[in-house]
Amino acid sequence: MPLLEVMLDERAERSDIDMRVIGSGAKLGPEQCREVSELMIKLNPDLVILIGPAQTTPGPSEARKMLREAGLPTIVISDFPAKKLVDEMEKSGLGYIIVEADSMIGARREFLREKVRIKNLKLGCLLTARRSIEDAIARVKDAWDFFFMRLEEKSLPALEQIAKECKRLDKPIYAYFVVGTPRNAEIIKMIGWPVTTTMEKVEEFAAKLEGTLDGIIATCVGDYEGDKELLEKLQKFREK
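Given the sequence above, the corresponding structure tokens read:
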């Protein structure tokens, strides 16, 4: 599910809007869709944004019906197959946004390379320290072009071993570098990710990564002023 609520109120500071997110999980059967629709109807919001694929199937169809009968203003955001429902949604008074691009979620590398004929696009893999180093190194040896790894203090030793293998195979590796500040504490808590380091220690931590990584993606997650300060602190590492 897209983080639409974060897009509309990234820093949780707007006083003119309040949102609730209710999800059915991976399944979109009638039972799951009825359950979440009932919860939404009880909230009686000013606007419902119904997001999901497979809108022609029984579950999402039941959800649209329930929301319409409850008189809740609703906008449906879905993928290309929902085009078949445009007339129905217009007659029902539902708004809609149809994203025509096919994201091919879950498509295998072989399919992308051989069937879709993606030759000039690099394919990257996201590694996690929650799995064994052996598993991560096995992925590095697989047919990926580059790698990302979310970084925290305790995963640094694992990153160093994985990066060594990447360097041996001449494959770039980058780290996602999340910096905690007093201004983004609530957002970090909401996302549920541990921070890589704090603003006070960012230069010390970045120095440990020199010669290990091909680059970092650094962010203060929702703290724009923090991002500017972070960029200034990291500038000296770019210039070396």
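The chain has two domains: 4-99, 109-238. Try to locate this feature in the token string yourself.
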